[in-house]
Amino acid sequence: MILYGGGDHGYSLYEILTLLGEPLEGFFDDREEGFLLPKEKYLGSYDPAILPESPVLIAITDNTIRRNLSLRVRHRIGAPLIHPRAYVAPSAILEPGVVVMAGAVIHSQAYIGAHTIINTGAVVEHFVRVGAFTHISPGVVLACRSQVGDSCFIGTGALIVPHVKVGEGAIVGAGSLVLRDVPAFARVWGHPAQPQSPKI
Ligand SMILES: CC(C)(COP(=O)(O)OP(=O)(O)OC[C@H]1O[C@@H](n2cnc3c(N)ncnc32)[C@H](O)[C@@H]1OP(=O)(O)O)[C@@H](O)C(=O)NCCC(=O)NCCS
What we know:
By secondary structure, the chain is α/β, with parallel strands linked by helices. Helix content is 11%, strand content 27%. The strands form four sheets. Strands 5-8-11-14-17-20-22-23 form an eight-stranded mixed sheet, with helices on one face. Strands 6-9-12-15-18-21 form a six-stranded parallel sheet, with no helix packed on it. Coenzyme A binds next to β22.
């Protein structure tokens, strides 16, 4: 496996690979320094000609950057990377590029779109749908049959109640209690979550 991104998130993915006994073949990073991954594994900036048969996982937490990099990547995208102490139900469907961190639970018939991050201790209940390029932060609870669109950011510890839909590109602040549908590209937070003005 190759990681694209040698920073904090890359380091976490490297440790998961190590726990699983999967070798890290190397990592791309478009910066030339400031990595946390072992220097001897550095492959340089992204180059489709390097180890072209190896799968790549994009190890960047920013949803927009992750999406943009995915458009450049010509390598095959790696199968979902799941921490050995996460639980993923046999009937859940995870698309390529998904990462699931320690302590996360993904229940029956849940669907997780490509390149989405299910972070530490997050709970994705049964029949939940999560889009692509989304970040479900640590400790989030997505209750049964809730839906989260593509490119959403759900902040640490937020709770989305059953059947509620969070639209594409929406931001839900840390600790929020989301009781009603959130429109696409909205920013909401609070207890209960309320719409906030767009960031200029
Ligand atoms: C929602 C969020 C992205 C908004 O960030 P932002 O646009 O930079 O907002 P600001 O920090 O400028 O805050 C604007 C106001 O909203 C308030 N606010 C921001 N987030 C809030 C939240 N989650 N709950 C309650 N109030 C919040 C701030 O206190 C501030 O209030 P003030 O104007 O009275 O001082 C951010 O606050 C957040 O919740 N981030 C979560 C980070 C996280 O969980 N990361 C996980 C990494 S693994």
